[in-house]
Amino acid sequence: MNEQAIRNIVIVGGGTAGWMAAAAFARVLGHACRIRLVESEEIGTVGVGEATVPHLKLFNNLLGIDETEFVRQTHGTFKLGIQFNDWGQVGDSYIHGFGDLGHDLGLVPFHQCWLRARQLGFAGDLGDYSINTLAAPRGRFMASASDVPRHSPLANIAYAYHFDSGRYARYLRGYAEARGVQRTEGRIAHARLRPDNGFVDAVVMEGGEAIEGELFIDCSGFRGLLIEQALHAGYDDWSHWLPCDRALAVGCEKTGPATPYTRSTARPAGWQWRIPLQHRTGNGYVYSSAHVSDDEAAATLLANLDGQPLGDPRPLRFTTGLRRKVWDRNVVALGLASGFMEPLESTSIYLIQSGIAKLLNLFPREGISPVLVDRYNEQTRFESERIRDFLILHYHATRRGDMPFWEQCRTMDIPASLKDNIALFRDSGRFFRNAEEMFAQVSWVQVMIGQGIVPTGVHPLADQIPPHELEGFMKHVRGVIADCVGAMPAHEAFIARHCAAPVPGAPMPA
Q1: Would you say residue 3 has pLDDT above 90?
Q2: Are 130 and 102 in contact (CB under 8 A)?
Q3: Structure pTM?
Q4: CATH class of 8-48+164-238+320-386
Q5: Which pairing describes strands 188-193 and 200-205: parallel, antiparallel, or unpaired?
Q6: CA 343 from centre of chain
Q7: Residues whose CB falls within 8 Å of the CB of residue 3, separated by 6 or more in sequence, listed in order
Q8: Domain boundaries, the chain
Q9: Cα(449)–Cα(127) distance, rounded to whole angstroms?
Q10: What is the mean pLDDT of residues 465-480?
Q11: Cα–Cα distances in Å, from 395 out to 47, 76, 416, 453?
Q12: What rounded mean pLDDT belongs to the chain?
């Protein structure tokens, strides 16, 4: 055990990961530690329109950030879920919505009621029973209402955000610096290791300054400047399950009201994202270079934009996977330095947030304890592998065989853990959430049903519900959801009223 107390934290790299860490440490640790962030404007970051999951609200609440100001400053919009087009087969469309799906009937989960009603012939589309999945394609949105009964769907609306990740990083930088975080501009030449134990002693700048610390946070992106280049933590490659290894990103002009959902459309060798912001739309094509050339991918992306592109597509190359040790010695990797999960379910910022939360929960009292390091790595691996399985599900649960890429995904071998989940659900619609994994039963159910995994049976408790009682229950839930959606304002109108960003070039108010 290294007994040196943690008094100096050095964050290597800025961007979303670095400034999220700096802001959280400044807020939680206060003056107990000196926090210094090193970044270079020359290197830049992977800044794109970002989609998130509802967990980010908890992070912003921890920092005491006002939601209205946050959305305005990041040119953000709201997100009720993700629409998946052409994934099961060409022409399919479903929404993975946040929040509840109907409500349980006694001990019977709602989706089991829906499966039984489907057998009896009086079930609507699964999306008709969730306020998120019904409101999203209709362009409706509102935050949770406080003037309605607590059991009303309008009282508990789960939502996330779309925003400009570069603006979010700058917003957090201002927050962190105002609370004492010191920023150092410049490039790091190398890391200096302690000869006795191999811990990082300091990062040495190109100008010769050595910045010492007891704990280093590696937010240097794919390079892994400390975690890999200095400590050689190793990397587990998951690309045999998630074969996309490149992406192209480009913004385009806004052509209509911003939709309150992210859109993911399957393409010949991957998928295309669409993330609406207030003044533009973010787009990208995540693809397998083994199945399409870069030029072909760029042509596909540019041919499927809503508006005129705002520049040339920016290329990204990656290998999906995870560091074998995300916390190694006195270095903790966050963001792209820790591993990469493609943004199919908007988990990138969540994984940063989760890494920060776990580190604060396991923060060393005196020195670096191997017990804490091992538990952090175990929790990170468990969470990452379960997210990995959920992403693989989207690719594997397809009936498409029209393209070599999709045929490969449909027929590939998959992890035993995912295979077991699919088999259990296919048998009788059951799914059991394992401990603290990110995605809950409602998410797995929506994606499996949405992509054509329909159970051959239902839970026996659902069989005990009299058909006339079940029919009335389903009709009531569907009607309540429809009435609530009808009462919601348009997404664009909600933003205009509460959190519209300044229009570029417009005069400042007096």
Answers
A1: no
A2: yes
A3: 0.95
A4: alpha beta
A5: antiparallel
A6: 6
A7: 366, 367
A8: 8-48+164-238+320-386, 99-157+415-490
A9: 10
A10: 97
A11: 26, 29, 16, 13
A12: 94
